């Protein structure tokens, strides 16, 4: 993992030859800086702190708050400048602590506090508030203002998650800049500029950004507060530890904050290689699920068709007996393990060791909803490689929905750098607005689309300009992943130097793969074997096939026909209901270890609180099961499970089946099923603040198709394949390609998976009016 | 109240065509919306946001800076009585008092028939003609209470409708710039030659 900024040592060693090196003096000390760097940024590498509110190193400076005034010596004597707007210059002499500077800083603070309510005792920010801290360190101590302060209704909800108190606001422009500059969702703006300048949304158009929580974190006062944390704790009561978010595979650095053994908040931590301090709202607020009352707290075993609480000894014994019986009667191939991408690397490794000891070869950490883990063997790119590449090719899911912070990074690269994005998509994605080319394809026609693009002289010219990174993932759960693999191979054949950023979204899929818990398309084979009655014992490691496997019917048949099911999980799910033994696992923040992000970086996971009830870390469960089974895997503590993974074989192309999309009836619509950020994922539905944010089940068609069908928007329609049908509400979406239908995956309401069949290369549906 | 009418959408596109960036047309189109409804309606702001490619919050953020854009319905005539120094010395307060009594409303509100909205105004830059006022931004100088009564009578009788269009209409003649004279939607990075006024040494 790379850390923030280049170290001063590097700069100093390069200073002699580097034309971009600048040397200046801050308070008599010589400071090495880079051309174009701001005085405040250079000063941050010294011990002299310049107070500031609006300046944020990850956003463009605006000079709003004027708190960072310093003196710079010039030909006409010292001059007051805003250090967040003034670039360094060779030989510049800066003073940050003169009488003049002090007077200016005190004056500004007195002005900022003139209308500030000073309600610190009831303010969430009190104790970690830059305004409070700097009023003490750089303020005048008392105010000359006796007039009535500004009054506004407080607080107002500007979104489902964020509250705004305009009285506390000092108009630093951080939240509004974040919204437009970083998130690309300028849904908040300064309004009524003048005496009554205030941050507001448009009436009835909430700040429904996927990244709204970041504004709360960067607010330098208590103006923005987050609903899940309001009045929950005082900062001085919080304990914190650094960790890594595993909601998706980006690997955002987080800080877990807890009080009285309860997780109360996640904050983003600046990691130059990954999240730059940002988090998406799902990752930030799904800490609530850890505290959910729905959690498993004790082992359960099935007695008389219902799950009853039991002791660990009993549960492990039953589990071990189940496995042993299966192995002795039908052999190791009658035991299968599904899941593992939720686990830490160490957990995955312990389970992989157990599996290998017992000779279990049927295991897969994906649920037939990703790509083959071969993608990790392709020539790899890091996130920073992608954001500095000349060309980025998107051949995968909507990153804004599935790997939101990667969307932020690529959006930043496309808007600020010279990176050009070529996107292959079936409907507008979050990055479409920023893409140099957004090329539409029908499901199954990726290869044709890619080949057409590669033959386009303009695109070919762009790709020859510099390095090319392919962002590769599963875009559509209603088509075979073979098409994506073929499309990638076409690119790699034409441009052998391309590197790949694999975007399989499950938190630690890469770690599970490295540990050996995945192998090709095994999930489908396992489920098929189970449905045919060949699986005596199915072990679910935080996997819920009944909710996640695209082919719902296959999952149902598999779970019904597997003789025994052992579930290791944190929450009751549709699949754990079917289990014969439930072993409660420790949740995120309840166990330590490491996780591997999509780039293959091994990142820390920290334990902050005690595991709920008697739940245990997954590695411990594996170890104890091994002991019961007499299969010693030689693990006594977490330390015995430190990474020893072999470097994967490098391959240039993916294995493909060479399938081609079948012809279709012109009346049919090709189905696209993809994920939204908020869906029925366990961590979302068990977080009260996020649970109601899903858009709900529905079918989205191009308005021209709707017109052709004579259907009406908002009404229920019948959506059918040749064998099955479901009822869904019809919506119009201009960005859905004509001739295709888009349905969000795993949403509350009708389950589209009723129509999906694992053997179908493509799913064509017919949409009809009801009655 | 409403989105732009088809006729106004056509005008909006013409305005957008004059600028290198659609969002530069924001303020002229806001005037158009105010001309249509007498004030800038929420739906109109949403519609403008779609037309120029920004969010409604950005439209509102820009529009709400300007005192002359109204976000609530106002009367057909907006009566702004100046109350700054010169006018104050020459009897603006008395004038306002009279207006309030005559119209039966307080400053900042609209007559029940929707004819007149009365407002305090800051300096209107006609200090030599104090006290002055504006009706839909058309000046009336050296006003006495009697003059004000006459003005209100005339407005009510519709005698001034030729001179003073209803609120929101800036001018009775619309500026038309032929398409070939507009800058058009040129991306700045596509402009290669330097602007005329910086054309080499000959300009110096």
Automatic annotation (TrEMBL), chain A:
Coiled coil regions, renumbered to chain: none
Keywords associated with the record: 2Fe-2S, 4Fe-4S, Iron, Iron-sulfur, Membrane, Metal-binding, NAD, Quinone, Translocase
Main location: membrane
Entry GO CC: membrane
Residues annotated as domain 4Fe-4S Mo/W bis-MGD-type: 238-294
Essential cofactor(s): [4Fe-4S] cluster; [2Fe-2S] cluster
Keyword Endoplasmic reticulum: no
2Fe-2S ferredoxin-type domain segment(s): 20-100
Protein's GO biological process: ATP synthesis coupled electron transport
CDD domains in the cross-refs: fer2 (cd00207), Molybdopterin-Binding (cd00368)
Cell location: Membrane
All copies of domain 4Fe-4S His(Cys)3-ligated-type, residue ranges: 100-139
SUPFAM superfamilies noted in UniProt: 2Fe-2S ferredoxin-like, 4Fe-4S ferredoxins, ADC-like, Formate dehydrogenase/DMSO reductase, domains 1-3
Pfam families noted in UniProt: Fer2_4, Fer4_Nqo3, Molybdop_Fe4S4, Molybdopterin, Molydop_binding, NADH-G_4Fe-4S_3
Entry-linked InterPro entries: 2Fe-2S_ferredoxin-like_sf, 2Fe-2S_ferredoxin-type, Asp_de-COase-like_dom_sf, MoPterin_dinucl-bd_dom, Mopterin_OxRdtase, Mopterin_OxRdtase_4Fe-4S_dom, Mopterin_OxRdtase_prok_CS, NADH_UbQ_OxRdtase_75kDa_su_CS
Gene Ontology molecular function, alphabetical: 2 iron, 2 sulfur cluster binding; 4 iron, 4 sulfur cluster binding; metal ion binding; molybdopterin cofactor binding; NADH dehydrogenase (ubiquinone) activity; NADH dehydrogenase activity; quinone binding
Presence of keyword NAD: yes
Family under the similarity heading: Belongs to the complex I 75 kDa subunit family.
Listed name of the protein: Unannotated protein
Organism: freshwater metagenome
Automatic annotation (TrEMBL), chain B:
Organism taxonomic ancestry: unclassified sequences, metagenomes, ecological metagenomes
Matches recorded under InterPro entries: NuoE-like (IPR002023), NuoE_dom (IPR042128), NuoE_N (IPR041921), Thioredoxin-like_sf (IPR036249)
NCBIfam families, sorted: nuoE_fam
Descriptive protein name: Unannotated protein
Molecular function, one GO term: 2 iron, 2 sulfur cluster binding
Family: Belongs to the complex I 24 kDa subunit family.
Keyword Iron-sulfur: yes
Cofactor(s) it depends on: [2Fe-2S] cluster
Keywords: 2Fe-2S, Iron, Iron-sulfur, Metal-binding
């Amino acid at each position: 993992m790379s850390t923030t900024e280049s170290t001063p040592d590097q700069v100093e060693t390069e200073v002699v030859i580097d034309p971009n090196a600048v040397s200046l003096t801050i308070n008599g000390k010589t400071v090495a800086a880079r051309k174009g760097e701001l005085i405040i940024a250079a000063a941050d590498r010294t011990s002299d702190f310049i107070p500031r509110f609006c300046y944020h190193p990850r956003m463009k400076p605006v000079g709003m708050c004027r708190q960072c005034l310093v003196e710079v010596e010039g030909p006409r004597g010292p001059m007051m400048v805003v250090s967040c707007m003034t670039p360094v210059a060779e030989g510049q002499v800066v003073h940050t602590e003169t009488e003049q500077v002090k007077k200016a800083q005190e004056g500004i603070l007195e002005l900022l506090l003139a209308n500030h309510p000073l309600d610190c005792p009831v303010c969430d920010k009190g104790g970690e508030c830059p305004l409070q801290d700097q009023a003490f360190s750089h303020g005048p101590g008392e105010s000359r203002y006796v007039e009535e302060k500004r009054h506004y209704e407080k607080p107002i909800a500007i979104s489902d998650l964020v509250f705004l108190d305009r009285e506390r606001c000092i108009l630093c422009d951080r939240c509004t800049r974040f919204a437009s500059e970083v998130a690309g969702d300028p849904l908040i703006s300064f309004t009524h500029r003048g005496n009554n300048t205030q941050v507001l949304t448009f009436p009835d158009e909430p700040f429904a950004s996927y990244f709204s929580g970041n504004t709360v974190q960067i607010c330098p006062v208590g103006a923005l507060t987050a609903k899940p944390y309001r009045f929950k704790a005082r900062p001085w009561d919080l304990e914190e530890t650094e960790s890594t978010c595993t909601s998706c595979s980006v690997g955002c650095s987080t800080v877990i904050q807890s009080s009285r053994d309860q997780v109360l908040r996640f904050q983003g931590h600046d990691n130059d290689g990954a999240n730059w301090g940002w988090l998406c709202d799902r990752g930030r607020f799904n800490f609530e699920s850890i505290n959910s009352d729905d959690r498993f707290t004790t082992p359960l075993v099935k007695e008389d068709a219902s799950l009853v609480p039991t002791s660990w000894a009993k549960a492990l014994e039953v589990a071990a007996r189940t496995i042993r019986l299966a192995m002795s009667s039908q052999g190791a191939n009658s035991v299968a393990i599904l899941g593992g991408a939720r686990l830490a690397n160490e957990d995955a490794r312990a389970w992989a060791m157990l599996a290998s000891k017992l000779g279990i070869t049927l295991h897969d950490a994906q649920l037939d909803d990703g790509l083959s883990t071969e993608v990790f063997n392709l020539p790899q790119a890091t996130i920073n490689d992608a954001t500095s590449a000349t060309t980025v090719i998107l051949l995968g899911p909507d990153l804004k929905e599935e790997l939101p912070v990667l969307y932020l990074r690529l959006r930043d690269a496309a808007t600020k750098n010279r990176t050009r994005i070529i996107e292959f998509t079936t409907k507008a994605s979050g990055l479409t607005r920023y893409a140099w080319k957004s090329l539409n394809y029908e499901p199954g026609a990726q290869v044709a689309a890619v080949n057409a693009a590669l033959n386009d002289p303009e695109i070919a010219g762009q790709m020859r300009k510099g390095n090319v990174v392919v962002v590769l993932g599963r875009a559509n759960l209603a088509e075979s992943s073979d098409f994506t693999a073929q499309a990638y191979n076409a690119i790699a054949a034409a441009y052998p130097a391309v590197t790949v950023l694999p975007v399989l979204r499950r938190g630690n899929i890469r770690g599970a793969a490295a540990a050996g818990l995945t192998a090709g398309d095994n999930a489908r084979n396992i489920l098929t074997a189970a449905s045919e009655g060949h699986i005596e014992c199915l072990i679910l490691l935080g996997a819920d096939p009944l909710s996640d496997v695209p082919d719902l019917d296959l999952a149902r048949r598999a779970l019904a026909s597997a003789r025994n099911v052992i579930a290791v999980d944190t929450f009751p799910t549709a699949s754990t209901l079917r289990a014969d033994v439930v072993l409660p696992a420790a949740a995120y923040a309840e166990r330590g270890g490491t996780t591997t992000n999509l780039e293959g970086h091994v990142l820390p996971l920290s334990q902050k609180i005690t595991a709920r009830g008697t739940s245990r870390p997954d590695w411990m469960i594996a170890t104890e099961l091994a002991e019961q089974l007499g299969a010693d895997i030689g693990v006594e503590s977490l330390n015995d499970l430190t990474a020893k993974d072999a470097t994967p074989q490098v391959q240039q192309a993916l294995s493909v089946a060479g399938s081609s999309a079948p012809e279709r009836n012109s009346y049919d619509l090709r189905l696209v099923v993809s994920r939204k950020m908020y869906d029925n994922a366990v961590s979302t539905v068990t977080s009260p603040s996020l649970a109601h944010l899903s858009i709900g089940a529905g079918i989205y068609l191009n308005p021209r198709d709707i017109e052709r069908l004579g259907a009406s928007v908002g009404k229920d329609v019948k959506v059918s394949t040749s064998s099955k049908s479901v009822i869904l509400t019809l919506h119009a979406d201009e960005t859905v390609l004509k001739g295709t239908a888009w349905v969000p995956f795993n949403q509350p309401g009708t389950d589209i998976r009723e129509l999906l069949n694992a053997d179908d290369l493509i799913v064509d549906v017919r949409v009809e009016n009801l009655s | 109240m409403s989105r732009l009418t088809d006729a106004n959408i056509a005008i909006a596109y013409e305005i957008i065509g004059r600028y290198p960036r659609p969002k530069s047309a924001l303020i002229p189109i806001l005037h158009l919306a105010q001309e249509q409804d007498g004030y800038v309606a929420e739906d109109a702001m949403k519609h403008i946001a779609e037309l120029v490619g920004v969010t409604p919050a950005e439209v509102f953020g820009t529009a709400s800076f300007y005192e002359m854009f109204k976000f609530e319905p106002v009367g057909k005539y907006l009566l702004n009585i100046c109350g700054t120094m010169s006018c104050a010395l020459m009897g603006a307060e008395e004038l306002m008092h009279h207006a309030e009594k005559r119209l039966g409303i307080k400053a900042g509100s609209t007559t029940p028939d929707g004819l007149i909205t009365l407002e305090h105004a800051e300096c209107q830059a006609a200090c030599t003609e104090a006290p002055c006022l504006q009706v839909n931004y058309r000046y009336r100088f050296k006003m006495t209470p009697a003059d004000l009564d006459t003005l209100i009578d005339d407005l009510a009788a519709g005698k001034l409708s030729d001179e003073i269009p209803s609120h929101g209409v800036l001018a009775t003649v619309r500026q038309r710039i032929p398409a070939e004279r507009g800058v058009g939607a040129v991306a700045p990075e596509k402009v290669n030659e330097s602007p005329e006024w910086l054309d080499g040494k000959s300009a110096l």
